[in-house]
Amino acid sequence: MLITFAVHDYRSLRDIKLPLERLNVITGPNGSGKSSLYRSLQLLAAVGQGRVISALAHEGGLSSTLWAGPETIAASVKRGEHALEGTVRKKRVSLKLGFASEDYGYAIDLGYPIGGETVFISDPDIKAEVVWAGEVLKRSNVLAQRNGPLVSVLGEDGERASIKTDLAGYDSMLTFAADPVRTPELVELRERMRGWRFYDQLRTDKTAPCRTPQIGTRTFALSEDGSDLAAAVQTIREIGDRAAFADAIEDAFPGSSVEIETTGGLFDLTLKQPGMLRPLRTAELSDGTLRFLMLTAALLTPRPPQLMVLNEPETSLHADLIPALGRLILRASDECQMIVVSHNAHLVTLLAEHGAQLLELSKDWGETQVSGTDPVTFNWPSR
Question: What order of strands is seen across the sheet that includes strand 307-311?
Fold first, then answer.
């Protein structure tokens, strides 16, 4: 389980060190940094997938994702005595992401490339990476470290040895220095990060793939857009908690039931409701009903990840469905760590009343602040 998530100089997240528990709810007004926090978690996961450089490029490159304010804001400016003005940057350009878990921690530092002829001007360089044992990075607990092209690891004899001297600036050591024999910790962390699941792009529009029959194979995790909904539901019914799925449908839509129809390898979901002469296919369901079915399939996965992150899961849902959604999230948190980003007061209150950690975001001079948390120690690697 992650116990700390840290971000430095990503959009409005100048210096965020977030303590995490089993179930976490992030809330705050529009523009407070909720989406930035969600995207920074996705960027960290992209490191494990070997695509953090391309993910940053699709956001406009490093220059578009860095903190856009001055390096420091004087107290006199905050008091209104002087106008806010830009200053000459004195520190290195540095976007940092990291986390600490109960056994391992990882951090990455990205900056502008130095020299070289290339037209890939949106690509940053990975300047430093580090993996350590325990909760807080110290010199004594470093297991693997990357500075520029050099990667060194702690050997069985307790001595540090270089295993790579030519790692490209666009390659992570989690991908290109991971070895099950020499660096099993890198392999372990990479696979954990690859397994994190994010849901904020579930499609319920008229042309959404899930509204037409899809080829079905055993689906242990609902896709990010929900296109394999029918196959995911059938997988839950065959090898997952069939009773829990039926209970969730009954909780949200009393007297209703879900069936999966298959024809020639194509799967289609139908919902039978009281008073209807025939079941409704996904093409006929409302956006809110279809979204709730997707969230149910995601949260009742037969193979829970170590971390699941939901961004505004209440979107399109009628207020009457919020309690059922809350109960689903609470149940899922028994199986995996959850981070829920929401500004729905009913959902936030329900989860907080049942033990969720509430993290409230606000803005101060453009910088995201987190209230209600104690200071967290998180050390960054040096370049």
Answer: 197-199, 307-311, 337-341, 23-27, 357-364, 367-371
Cα(326)–Cα(321) distance, integer angstroms: 9
Axis-axis angle for helices 287-299, 322-332 (nearest 10): 10
Q: Do 121 and 160 meet the contact criterion of CB atoms below 8 Å apart?
A: no
- pLDDT tens string, the chain, 383 residues long: the values are 999 999 999 999 999 999 999 999 999 999 999 999 999 999 999 999 999 999 998 898 898 999 887 777 665 666 565 556 655 566 788 999 999 999 999 999 999 988 777 888 778 999 999 999 999 999 999 999 999 999 999 887 778 889 999 999 999 999 999 999 889 999 999 999 999 999 999 999 999 999 999 999 999 999 999 999 999 999 999 999 999 999 999 999 999 999 999 999 999 999 999 998 899 999 999 999 999 999 999 999 999 999 999 999 999 999 999 999 999 999 999 999 999 999 999 999 999 999 999 999 999 888 999 987 888 999 999 98
Q: For residue 276, give both structure tokens.
A: 């209807």
Q: How far is CA 66 from CA 17, 69, 84, 89, in A?
A: 17, 9, 18, 13
The label of the residue with tokens 């948390």 reads 373
Q: Which structure tokens are listed for 289?
A: 């009903």
**What distances in angstroms separate CA 36 from CA 17, 59, 263, 382, one per listed residue?**
14, 11, 43, 25
Give, for 137, the enclosing helix (H) or strand (E): none
End-to-end CA distance of the chain: 28
